[in-house]
Structure formats: C-alpha cells, structure tokens
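Q: Predict the assembly, please.
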Amino acid sequence: MPEPRSIALIDAESFYASCEAAFDPKLRGKPIVVLSNNDGCVVAANTLAKRIDPDIMFKPYFQIKNWALAKGVAVRSSNYELYGAVSNRISEIISRYSAWQEVYSVDESFVGLRGTPEELESIGHEIRRTVRQLTGVPVRVAIGATKSLAKVAAIGIKKAFAEIGVLNLARYDAAQMDRILDSIDVTDLWGVAGRSGKRLAAINIHTARELRDMDPKWARKRFKVNMERIVLELRGVPCIPLEMVPPAVKDQLIFSRSFAKKITTEPDMEQVISLYAQCVSARLRAQGSVAQHLSAWAATGWADTGTVSHSAQATVALPTPTDDPITLTKAARALLPKLFPVDGIRYARAGVVLTDLRQADGVQPLDLFRPEFEGRGVGQALDEINRKFATTAVGVGLGGIKTPPGWEMKRELLSPRCLTNWDELLVAAA
Amino acid sequence: MCSIRCVRATSSVPGLRAHAHPAGRSEVAQCGFPSPAQDYPTEELDLTARLIRDRVATYIWKAAGHSMEPVVPDGSMLIVDRGIAPAPGRIVVAIVDGEYTVKRLHVDNDGRVTLQAENPEYPDIELPELSEMTIWGVVTYIISPAT
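A: Predicted assembly structure:
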C-alpha cells in the first residue's frame, strides 16, 4: 500500500529581491526593494527592507528615494527578463522531484510527493538546498495533505520556521493541528477572499479551525462549492486537483504600457501602436491562435495636470481571423485618426487588445479574404529574428525603428539582464 | 562569423558527460529504395549539449582582465556550472570583497585556501573559507575567438 500523496507548496522568499541578490554579491544580507514598471512604486521588498519600514510596499519611488539612501536600502528596477529566466530554472529543478507539478505563479509551484513524513521533510530540504545551490534563490517547502493545508503550512513557515524553511503538517497530532488552525485568521486562508471573510465573520466563523469544523454541505449552500472544498481540504480530503497543464488558450490578449515620456505627436503614437501590435501578434503566434477583433487605445494620465484629459479607442473587425503582424499593425493604426481631437494632449498610456481568439488550426479562411502576407510566414520570420537578436530587432512599419525611443519603459536602476542578453553577461575580474 | 577557440577548463576532474539529445529522430516517408544510411541514424553534433552539462545549473559569464592569461584570455566567455563541487585545481568564479573574480582554486596541505592567478604578474588571493558564500561556481569551459 503506497503512502497517500501529499502536496508540497514551494515558494521563493521575496522572489524579485532574491533574484537581485543572487547575481550581485554586494546585495547579500542587505535590505532590497524592487520598483514597478517605469520605476513608479515599490512592488517587492525583502524581509530586511520590510523590517525597516513595514509599510514599504507600493510607496512611490520619489517618496522613498532619500529614505533608501539614508538607510542603505538597495533599490532596483524590475528586471523581468532575469526573474522570468530564474523562475523557469526553479520550476525545472522542482520538476525533477515529482511527476506532478502545477506552476502556480512566477514564484510558486505545487507538487505531489509520496513518502513517510520523514521522507517528505528530507525531500523538502533537498529541494531547498538544490534550488539554492543552482540558482542562489532561497525557497520554502510547505507540505500538507491537500493544497489548502500546504498553504497553511506555508503560513506556519513564515510565522515560526523561516530559518528552517521546510514544514510538514503531518508531524502534528490532532490537538496540535487544532491549535495551529485556531491561530490562523480565516481570511489568510487560500481561496477565502475579503468578501467571503466578512460573510463568514457574520456567522461567527473567524479562524481556520472554525471553518474546518463547519458542515461542508452547509458551506456549499451558504457560499459556493469552493467553500465546501476548502472545508474538506482543511480536513485533509483533497478536493482541489493539481492543474498540471497550463490553462487553455487565453480568450483575450493585451499588450499595454505606460510611457516613460508622454507622447504628444501622431508619428510617435504610430510607432508605439505598431510596436505593440507586433508584440501582441508574437504572443498570439506563441500560443497558436488567431484573433478576430483588435482594439487599440490611448489615454492621458489620470494625475497629469499638464494635459487635456482624453482617451481614444478604435476597434476593428478583421476580415478573417489572423495572426499576421502586418494585418494587425494596419488594424491598430485605425486609432490614429481618433487621436488629438484638440491641441495640448499628452498621452501617458496605450495598448492593443486582441479578442475573439481561436485555435489557428480550426480556421479555414477563404483564399479571397486571406491577408496578402499571411501565407508567406512573415510573422514566423519576425519572431525568429527577434528571438535571435533582440526583441524589436526588426518590425513592421514604424515598429521596426531600432533605437529605443523615449517612450520605452523607464528602468534606470536595472541590473544586468544576464540570462537573456548577450551584451549584459555577468563579468568576473580576471 | 567568428571562429572560436574553445578550451576545456579542468585539471584533475573526470570528463563531463555529454547528454544525448532528447528530441526524437525525424522520420521521412520513403518511396522506392530505402536509403542505405537509414540504419545509421545519427544526431548532428550539438555544441550546446556538449558544453552544458545541466541547463539549469549553467551560467554564461565574461572574463575581464589579464590575471588568468594565457588560460583565460581577456574578454573570453566562461561556461560556469553551479552543480559541481569546486575541487582544488579547478578554475572558479569566486566572490572577494563583494566582487566577482575568476581564479584557480588552490588548497594546500594545511587546508589554507588561495585563489591563484595564472599570470605571474598578479598576486594570489587568500580566501577565509570555502563555501557557497565565497565560491559562486566552477568554470567548465573557456570560449574565446581565434586570433
């Protein structure tokens, strides 16, 4: 009789900050914060930084600039290229320990593990050691009988086992589990949103233990099937399966950004929109789908007092569902005549949205309506070139301009993109 | 295209395992006579598979400076593996005073750890300890253009 399967939740500690420290020895043991797109506000901070200011998250950069300088807090722009590459490596390392893996987010995976409680803890330590050794990023391994209990174990690690980094709830007996669940607020549980939390409080359910002891049928009636599942999962009955296949094709694709520098002319916006259309078309091809509708929009900043407040939008029904960048770029330009209805507009953001997506295979367009370049593999060729050289090495129309224009994302405190860019490799003094 | 000179960076450590490429062979529909080569299916040589033992443990670095010449020419690319132990005699990327440096690891009979330069004009550096904090990874290959 094999041991029942347990679930381990493996998550990285302060993932963005840990990635920064993994490649920069000067950052080791230092407080670190990471800024959002355009260096807007703090989106990640390690424990040391949070210890200095527990409310550091989401503070605007200009507000914390001097504070960081005074307190010796390292500040970095978001290095998404680096975080993405490190995340892939960590997922792959974890996959070597289990055939069942669900990559839940950029820094979290659920895996299924079988073994005695002691074996599971020892596998947990092994995973932690290996990920640390190969990537430099510390991860925690929280183990429980179900996904919900693995999440409970993760709370336990944060509270009491941060140094050890591995916890298996199976080591606790029933009375100890009662005490643990008693100490956890119901809204800290996985899947219990603030609103359900309020409704639970109204019927006097405040702790994880009280929720676990709720009648599951009643939970389903009063709330939804999800709440019944959480109740059962807290009792150790697996109800939420590992989703091992990535979710099916997205039915909408969005590429939108805020600009570092406001856009005040039509040619500049044409360049932005062309580039975004190409980016979104590359994503479309990557997931093997085609789109029927394209919308392009642009808007001024909500807090910008130096502009007339304005937003413009154009939606185009494409002649046939397509992934062709030339057709999509052309369609996105439908936005241009709607821009600048009056003088003095400074656009702060723009985006391209593709909707009505379907699998590319299922489409049999009539040749009559077939976009003229589609059959020639222009999209694939662009993707190939951009992959070999750099994103936006070539492009269609004004999207093909090589020098990064002023409206590209501002990342002044960017660390080297050392896993994805040949000219930003790590350097060792010889 | 630039031709490359590729040097195995090793001393006493047994050879690296070249991984077999996992991708399946392509099957081409045959009409008429079978090709006499089909009984000898083969993968073309894959430099990445040859130079990289384990993708998730491998990092590509650049060396800057002359202290390791002639073994590590200034500007060469380094293949650095974090999945193998930093044995004495190997070339390593180490951390000294918060800076990365590439040197040859030396441990003497008293257990004293030094980072040695290949170029006699450069001094050796003493390391307080051998740990994850001081050794970042082991250099397995040095790649530089043919000059």
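The first helix of chain A runs from residue 15 to 23. Chain A touches chain B through 18 residues (CB under 8 Å).
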